[in-house]
Automatic annotation (TrEMBL):
Keywords on record: Signal
InterPro entries in UniProt: DUF4232 (IPR025326)
Ranges of residues in domain DUF4232: 120-250
Organism: Streptomyces boncukensis
Residue spans of biased composition, Low complexity class: 33-44, 52-94
The protein's name in its UniProt record: DUF4232 domain-containing protein
Stretches the record annotates as Disordered: 33-118
Signal peptide: 1-30
Length: 258
């Protein structure tokens, strides 16, 4: 029977680097004890300095200001909100200065004089009709409306026109709006006049009688803008061919030559 052998023990060499590290740690520990700070002070790593991103307040102050705030302030002071700006500046909609706001409010609450006056009613107007120049079969007249009331009124647009016979019967009439100049709202003070130029032809057309005789109206009814009742005046300029009258938009004044 073979004799028993003791198991061999393999020695693992300790790394030299580990020994060096342990030696350095022991030296540091000894130095800490010599300075009087104690083992805990030597082993505890120093706390890192506070980062700007660690607190909400420092984060807000270090971030660049919005472009709208920089544009509104115009200087470096726009990085922080001013006491009077509030959240409106941060959102990019900076409020107007108090003086501007007051002026805007006054402009919105104080309408113009033309907006305060009522519309010109038929009952406060008078009408006259004056013949203007003529040529090449074309005829012109000035239709004038007069504010005969004691208060101002406003108007805007074109008059409605209707030719009538001597007995008051309506003659076929078509009103064309001359849009060479746009309609504008204006105020007529007591005694003010507004006029429209009328235009028609005396050359017979397809819609006139075969013998070429155009109707000769005796009267003209005029409906002011935005009204239903008509004013009446005598028609003396002569025949109207085609049953068509062209009218410009009303404007202040009495027309040419007046």
């Amino acid at each position: 029977m073979a004799p028993l052998r003791a198991p061999s023990v393999r020695r693992v060499p300790y790394p030299r680097a580990a020994l060096t590290a342990l030696t350095a740690a022991a030296a540091l520990l000894a130095a800490g004890c010599a300075d009087g700070d104690g083992p805990s002070a030597a082993s505890a790593p120093p706390s890192p300095p506070a980062s700007p991103a660690s607190s909400p307040s420092s984060s807000a102050s270090s971030s660049p200001p919005p472009a709208s705030s920089a544009a509104a302030g115009g200087t470096g002071q726009a990085a922080g909100p001013s006491p009077s700006s509030g959240s409106a500046r941060a959102s990019g909609s900076a409020p107007a200065p108090p003086g501007d706001r007051d002026r805007e409010a006054a402009a919105g609450s104080a309408p113009r004089a033309a907006d305060r006056a009522p519309w010109c009613g038929t009952g406060q107007l008078r009408m006259t009709l004056r013949t203007l120049g003529s040529g090449a079969g074309q005829r012109y007249a000035a239709l004038v409306l007069i504010n005969s009331a004691d208060s101002p009124c406003r108007t805007r647009g074109w008059p409605g026109l209707q030719l009538t016979s001597a007995g008051g019967a309506e003659i076929q009439t078509r009103t064309d709006r001359d849009r060479a100049a746009p309609a504008q709202q204006f105020t007529m003070r007591p005694g003010d006049r507004a006029w429209s130029r009328l235009h028609w032809t005396v050359v017979p057309g397809a819609g006139d009688p075969p013998d070429g005789s155009c109707p000769r109206p005796a009267g003209l009814r005029v409906i002011p803008p935005d009204e239903r009742r008509a004013l009446s005046a005598d028609w003396k300029p002569g025949p109207v061919c085609g049953g068509k009258l062209s009218a410009t938009a009303l404007r202040l004044g009495s027309g040419p030559g007046r």
